[in-house]
Every structure is written in C-alpha cells, then in structure tokens.
Amino acid sequence: DSLSRLFARCGHVQSVDVCEKPEPGEKKEKLTSKFFNRKAVTGFQVAYVVFRKPAGVQAAKALSQEGPLLISTESHPVKTGVSKWIANYVASVVDQEELKAEVDAYMQDYDKKIAEEEAKAAREEGVPDEEGWVKVTRKGRKPGLPRTEAASLLGLEREKQKRARKELLNFYAWQHRETKREHIAQLRKKFEEDKQRIALMRAQRKFRPY
C-alpha cells in the first residue's frame, strides 16, 4: 500500500510484488491461501512496481533526480515499534470460521478432482488403444478380448498398476486430511493459550500494549 501510494504520482499502479531477491522472467502465480504455504520475507526486499501504462515507468525513473523517497510521512505514517508488534499479533490471530471455510473449500475441490480422474479412467476401460489392445479389468461390464496371451498379461499388469495408483491416491488424500486436521488443532490450541495468557496478564495489571 505504501509503495502504491508513493508511485501513484507517476501513473496508475497496477500491482506491487514484494519478493526476497530479484527474479527474472514471468512472476510466479500468487498464493491464494491466507493460512497455508505463506513465507514471510524478512530483511532487505525487492519490489516490482507495475504500471498500467509505459509512461509510468519513465516518470518513475525521473523521480531519482528528486532525491530519496520517503515511505513514512506525517500524513501516512508506517507503524513501527510497539504499534507494529501489536498489529502483527492481531493479524496472527486466526479466524476459525474463515480457516474452516478455506479448508472445506480446498477439500471439496480435491475430492472433485479425484472423482473426475476416476470417471475418466472408467470411461477409458474397454476402449482399444492405438495398437488395438483392450485393457482387461474386473470392473468392465463388457470386457474386451485380448488378441494373444501376451496382450492378456499386459492387461493384467495395467490393471495392477491402476489399482496401485488408486491406492496411492487414496493414501495421499487421507494423509492430506490428517495433516490439515492436525494443523487446525494446533492453531486452536495456540489460540486458546494466547487467550488464557492475555487474560492472566490483564488480571495481573501488567499488560499495557498501548
């Protein structure tokens, strides 16, 4: 927000991406999760300011002749010290309902993807491949007849691989759900511990954040 406001005088700022170090090429897809896979960038950082029009870049280059640009001003101060710590703590408190909604939405998308893959595999059963071989499975209502004994063995091997792949996907799905549940339980435990610690400090009249 501060960088967008700072460079707004040069033109309409389309986006500002902050990263740990300069990265060539196209920018990576931004993470959509608010709670998971988020890496905090500390220390010196690099910012890419993207303008809607090329003229904004030329105007930004001309700013170097005006001297240093101040992000924190009297009209738009940047939080530091205790105020920043309090803001960071408040931001770290997880909204359980929002977290639950994100986890449920993720699992619904994952289950939908798995169901589509299984439906696609079911449609391909009994359909000859490019060489004319037909996959032999126990599920098919009209199993194809292999041309030779080698084709029969190949069909059995493919069925074995498919069964092993499905078992592996089921295991990954179960493992992913367990990891999510454990993470949510830890967040809830930390939230309750923070509430108890703050209540105790208030009771002792030693908690003065402001």
Automatic annotation (TrEMBL):
Superkingdom in the source lineage: Eukaryota
Annotated Ribosomal RNA-processing protein 7 C-terminal domain residues: 92-210
InterPro entries assigned: RRP7, RRP7_C, Rrp7A_RRM
Coiled-coil stretches: 96-127, 177-204
Keywords, comma-separated and alphabetical: Coiled coil
UniProt cross-references to Pfam families, sorted A to Z: RRP7 (PF12923)
Signal sequence segment: none
Gene Ontology BP annotations: ribosomal small subunit assembly; rRNA processing
GO cellular component entries: CURI complex; UTP-C complex
Keyword field contains NAD: no
Similarity comment: family membership: Belongs to the RRP7 family.
Protein name: Ribosomal RNA-processing protein 7 A
Originating organism: Opisthocomus hoazin
